[in-house]
Specification:
The chain is an alpha+beta fold. The chain has 2 domains: about 40 residues; about 90 residues, Alpha-Beta Complex (Outer Surface Protein A, domain 3), CATH 3.90.930. It has a 9-stranded antiparallel β-sheet with strand order 1-2-3-4-5-6-7-8-9, with no helix packed on it. It starts with a helix and ends in a 10-residue tail after the last strand.
């Protein structure tokens, strides 16, 4: 009888150790799954990304670079500073640079009609330097009609 009781105690002790081991193993598996599910994705490489628009954000979640296409077929990209002001804009027909106050200072454009030009504006939006060529290739010097693009 003593032999039977000592064997039962040994089996019970073994059973307890197995339960602890299984519980610990289950905890490790659940913890590992949780860490894998919450871990940031990190860098990724793609051959092609297809989308209608995209944005790049800084560490605070502010959009710093954005790109989109318009229903009419135009496409554009914007670069903003840390204050959210547009500093550079590039579209299918023009590229613009803005000062720290968000005022347009330089525009370079090439229209579908064959006209191309570049214009520099002062801080008040007045044309200071500019030149262009029309569809026929003739040079156009600045006039009062040259205005910043919106």
């Amino acid at each position: 009888m003593d032999n039977l009781e000592s064997r039962i105690r040994a089996l019970e002790a073994s059973n307890r150790r197995q339960r602890y081991s299984i519980t610990a193993l289950a905890g490790i598996i659940v913890g590992g799954a949780f860490i894998a599910a919450t871990r940031p994705a990190g860098d990724a490489t793609f051959d092609t990304v297809t989308c209608k628009k995209w944005k790049v954000v800084d560490k605070d979640g502010k959009v710093r670079i954005g790109a989109a296409t318009e229903p009419g077929g135009a496409s554009a990209m914007l670069w903003t500073d840390t204050n959210g002001k547009i500093r550079m804009a590039a579209g299918t027909d023009a590229m613009s640079w803005f000062d720290k106050d968000g005022k347009q200072r330089i525009v370079a454009s090439a229209g579908d009609d064959g006209m191309a030009g570049i214009t520099w504006f002062d801080k008040d939006g007045k044309v200071r330097i500019g030149s262009a060529t029309n569809a026929a290739g003739n040079v156009i010097l600045p006039t009062k009609d040259l205005k910043p693009k919106p």
